[in-house]
Amino acid sequence: MPFTPPKPIEPPPEDLKGSTVLVVDDERAWRVILETDLRMLGYKVSVAQDASEALDRAREDEPEVAIIDLMLPEPMDGWALLSELRSQGLPIPVIFYTAYPVFPSGTEDPDVIGYMSKAVDRADLYALLPPAIRRTRNRRPG
């Protein structure tokens, strides 16, 4: 397989710099990679290693979008975290980010922006953030 250089990562539009992105992943390496990239792009980053920590961060830091690993440790995987966020009245747009090659279908949640494989270029992941953040901003009063 030939080497493909990574795509250039587009920084977010000026008005979105400083937006808070919640990163939820039980693998430290992925948390560090995503947090480093996102901070370099100008986002604020809130990081959690499991679902219960993610719920605390979501309430405290009021992220405008969340990147969630589907395969979180028991008792709450990414799906369970999503339904818990919703039951707590937190309609944060979510991008599922997973090493699992087959994406589930059938979520009715309109705020699940997409599923990204950890094998794809991260530029593709970050390109989903601005429209998701705008969705949150359009919903918030004033």
Can you walk me through this structure?
Helix 3 links the parallel strand 3 and strand 4. It is built from five helices and five strands; from the N terminus they run βαβαβαββαα. With 142 residues, the chain is an alpha/beta fold. The mean pLDDT is 90. It has a five-stranded parallel β-sheet with strand order 2-1-3-4-5, with helices on both faces. Helix 2 runs parallel beside helix 3.
Amount of beta strand: 15-25%
Seen as an oligomer or otherwise, the chain set is single chain
Mean pLDDT: 90
What pattern of helices and strands is seen along the backbone? EHEHEHEEHH
Helix content: 25-40%
Largest β sheet strand count, sense and barrel closure: 5 strands, parallel
Notable characteristics:
142 residues, alpha/beta, 5 strands
Chart the SSEs and their pairings.
Layout: E1 20-24, H1 28-41, E2 44-48, H2 51-61, E3 65-69, H3 78-87, E4 94-98, E5 112-117, H4 122-127, H5 129-139
Parallel strand pairs: 1-2, 1-3, 3-4, 4-5
